[in-house]
Amino acid sequence: MPIHPRESDPAVPDPADPAPEGAVRPPRGDLPRSGRAAGTGSDTDEEPGPDAAGGPAPSEDEHTAELKELEDRWRRALADLDNLRKRHVRELERERMVERSRTAAAFLPVVDNLELALTHAGSDPGAIVEGVRAVRDQAVNVLELLGYPRHAETGVAFDPARHEVVGVVQDPDAPPGTVVEVLRPGYGDGERQLRPAAVTVAKRE
Question: Which residues of 65-84 are buried (b: 16+ CB within 10 A; e: fewer)?
Answer without folding.
Answer: eeeeeeeeeeeeeeeeeeee
